[in-house]
Amino acid sequence: MAYYVVLSTLTDEGRKTIKENPKRILEVNKELEKVGIKVREQYAVLGPYDFVNIVEAPDNETVMKMSVELGARGSVHLLTLAAVPITEFIKKIK
Asked: C-alpha angle 20/32/66, rounded to 5°?
């Protein structure tokens, strides 16, 4: 399994949805689990992004599918970064 940092920004439609149903965020997390993506950490943040998520997925293709599926809804814009745990990074650069 690989780790990814997902930075997301809500659209106007997404903000309306979250205002009306804040638990929608957790519902999306459950949808992601069904396609093999586990949300490890999730934070609401201030600044240019609304949320920072650390997710675990089997491969890049699964994450690309997530990005297309969520983006097609029109409620969020995503920026996804592949991430390597620091202990693994240190092992690989030795």
From this structure: 100
